[in-house]
Amino acid sequence: MSKEQGCVLKAWEVTLRKTQQAKKRANSIFGTVSVAPQTDDEATTTEENDDETSTNRSSVGELYHAERVLPNGDYYTGQWYDSFPHGHGKYLWTDGCMYIGEWYNGKTMGKGKFGWPSGATYEGEFKSGYMDGIGTYTGPSGDTYRGQWVMNLKHGHGIKGFANGDVYDGEWRKDLQEAQGKYRWRDESYYIGEWKNGMICGKGTFVWTDGSRYDGFWDDGFPSGNGTFKWDDGSFYVGHWSQEPEEMNGTYYPSGKEENLEWDPKDVFNNLSEYKICSGERVTVLPSQKKLSVWNSSKRVEKPRRISVDGRVSVGLDRAFEKMNMWGSESGEGAADIDSTTRRDLDAEIMRLEAEEFIQSLKPSPVPMRLPRAGKKQGETISKGHRNYELMLNLQLGISRHAVGKQAAVVSLDLKHSAFDPKEKLWTRFPPEGTKYTPPHQSTEFKWKDYCPLVFRSLRKLFKVDPADYMLSICGDDALRELSSPGKSGSFFYLTNDDRYMIKTIKKSETKVLLRMLAAYYNHVRAFENTLVIRFYGLHCVKLTGTIQKKVRFVIMGNLFCSEYSVHRRFDLKGSSLGRTTDKPESEINSNTILKDLDLNFIFRLQKAWYQEFIRQVDKDCEFLEQERIMDYSLLVGIHFREASVAGELIPSGARTPKGEFEDESAPRLSRADVDQLLSDPTRWASIRLGGNMPARAERTMRRSDYELVGEPTGEYYEVVMIFGIIDILQDYDISKKLEHAYKSIQYDPTSISAVDPRLYSRRFRDFIFKVITEDD
Questions:
Q1: Are 324 and 338 in contact (CB under 8 A)?
Q2: pLDDT at 173
């Protein structure tokens, strides 16, 4: 007998033994249980045990009506399932907050109404405890909002009525006016046009009640740029508008009637300063912050007796027999014999159920997940004696004294074509003794080159980087940190001490690629504020003089993982499979380890509004990279798990906190309410953007084979915060990559390798990313 046949035989023997035991158990049950009318004594006992039965049913998995006062004084009445409110119910907190509506596994889910002690109400759709969907909020002082919500925030189209009589009708994003909208003041003056971060910004029209109007561009609530002011008599003023008098210029055109020679454009700014945008009321306590007392209940109880529809009581049977009829014993009153056909059918049913149970037990089950081992702070501090100490000094001197410190502020983001000329570079000599323009220093003499300095200054302004903070981060008293090993390309990486910026040495070919695509890159990031493409802040070169004429080119980028959240897992995703696993053993993997495509064991689910924005932006970014003939880029993803036990085990969303005799029940952990408190903070929401600090759900997956890119979903979810962006965008499809593609295609599947044509790479990248990051249903 072969080994495989032996395993099959043993499996069958186990199944047979379990089947025989099940038959004996069935005979015992069927031979002793009889069904009889309920007596008065039984009815009395049932009434006395109503509360116990109601409590015990939570462990059975049945949906029933419950009414109970919880240990902390909260009150709930409504449908109940498995220790949680489930279905329709009413929950009253001791502080006076109340929710009436639909529940799902202890969370407000579906349609409902939430009320505050102040008299404020929200009526509409909920999702996972949040105000999410279409709903109406009415504040205690009269503010109202009707429209779309995402995770407690106004997001999408909505109409906001303020208590003072003002009304806004338009688009919202993260609780602020964004894109197109109309704001009408109580005196009937109104603005219609573009908004940004809750301020009038972009192109729009302001109309006063006296008939005059301004059509043009705005910034921070005031005219800025080209615009036209018109009076109701037909006269108008055309020009460039600015709050700085020296930048203001234009021409007045009278209507042919009486001229308005005393008018001053400053009057418009003075008048507009009286028209304030209301901020509205602040919701102090959000529905998702209300903790349910029942969530901490994990007490297991014995299975109760069930009451049938005609009032009789049945014993607790094994789940496999719950749907079967009850037979009495041969001698019992009302008994019925089991004929041979029934017995044969019963045997077949038992065999099928037990075999399915056994087969299910043979399937591999996911190992409980734990928080990854925390890694040390990345990088080695570059101190005196380090091999790159002088290079760091040269870099800091060049940036502080030339690239940032000596440059004038950017006035306009509209750049001339000449600013992008690759020949637009500045060389500066830094001798140790110093010059009129450079300070003395302790390093050897070097030359410093800035590439396209005006463009990168404009990029830093576009990315809202303060020049003083930028210079302090890179050139402050704290030294840079060099990552422990160079990248696959041979480049070295350096981090600033505050983790905000990353400095990477690059090859001459990469420098040429960046300069070639710089104009297109500038236009792209300017057109798409939420682009996921890595942010570049500077491109420089240090030329060491002396016997070794060495040039070191480096680019300064934003550090994607500079976040208030600790990053527990990091993934570098390309959408290819060849060589896309980490080469480290499990014992060496920690929170700093960069994992790859075949190491990924999650599907990430974003809220609908965020997901729609995500797919639009990924499409735009990939189209830009494809047009620039760029390939081999990655989506770098960082994951922060929001809930874990003290022992380090990850807690799936919706699961009760594990409690037992071997665990410290009083030990603190990061709860859902704690996280919601953080996310409800407006300063915290300001840090949430596409790709940055995004709340999401991660569904665990299992692969059927080692080379399957996306595993099968398991239904096991974890609440996470995601950070992601597109990196490594300086590799074009040059002759070396074409040769690499040709060589590897002979040995491997051409679709599995990374070096492919940019068009194919873009399509494959998007297909993969849209499979692992999807919409949350």
A1: no
A2: 85
